[in-house]
Here is the input.
Amino acid sequence: MNGQSDNPGARGALLSIVLPAYNEQEVLGKTYARFTAMGPVLEKWGLDYELLFVNDGSRDGTADLLNELAQRDGHVRAVHLTRNFGHQSAITAGLTVARGDAVAIMDCDLQDPPEVLPQFLAKWREGFQVVYAVRKKRKEWFGKRLAYWSFYRLLAAISDLKIPLDSGDFCVMDRSAVNLLNSLPERQRFVRGLRTWVGLRQTGVEYERDARAAGQPQYTLAKLIKLAMDGLVSFSSVPLKLVTRLGILGVIAGMMLGLWGVGVTIYEWSGHIQGRTPRGWASVACLVLFTSSVQMISLGVIGEYLSRIFLEVKGRPTFLIASIVQQGGPGDTAKPTAAISRGVAP
Ligand code: UDP
Ligand code: MG
Here is the structure.
């Protein structure tokens, strides 16, 4: 099953479904049932499947639940990371471990309904190597929808790459695309951006994003902001260029103000309005405040890039795998498995 899939429609092909899970004990039972119910449908497509749950360092009963499922059902594999590395790292881990000729990335809270998979597989069969999901409708509160809407438009406006609007991580990729994605050395992964960057034949499929089936959202506001920053900083250098432009604007404004000051002084000297000049402390205070804030913001923007360069240079892996639990597989090895770069040592 490994390697390039020369004939993506071939019978006996394997579909890996990567499902990152962080503290999802409430929903996992439902998730397993809904995906397992898709088994016969996939079989009609000539596909075997594996449910590749990536336990992203959960602190609830997720690990035990996944181990139990993996031991009971040969279709389930549970990859346990050593701690919580974050959604994007969990997906990356899943992509590395997946064996399928096609690999799907989906959320494990059933917001991406498994029933729409056949539409994606049809496009894959047509020869598209990347079939990404485009959200028609989100069943989330207005503020969150507005934030997502603005983020995707901002990213599209300033990115050097044409990342499709309103497409999240949900997608089906051919083995060839997964191999290329896995070979990218970047460690701070913004998967949906990298997926676009990879190229090949890509197409979008519209779907309606459901509400979470059970449990609480695991994406905190801080995590969402980090994801947005990762996307913007990894795929655009516009903020950095903006800093330079702001600086130039500041210099021009400063020079004009200087000229104005000289002009006023000369006017005073000529004796027309001596002693009537406003003292100007307010404008000076405003200017100092304004310019220092611009400098602070600019330093912050540079810092965002710098911190990511720092992380990349350190070269630490995106994730570490503690164990993989599957029927008759490597088993729940006592010895932790290290992910070297993004290549996993089995
Ligand atoms: N997730 C993860 N690690 C994290 C946070 C979230 O693996 O640190 C998983 C989570 O279990 C879910 C998916 O990422 O399968 C999306 O998370 P969530 O539903 O909380 O995000 P939302 O759908 O609200 O954006
Ligand atoms: Mg969710």
Remarks:
- Residues 20-22, 24, 56, 84, 86-87, 90, 107-109, 111, 212, 217-219 surround uridine-5'-diphosphate (ligand 1) (CB under 6 Å).
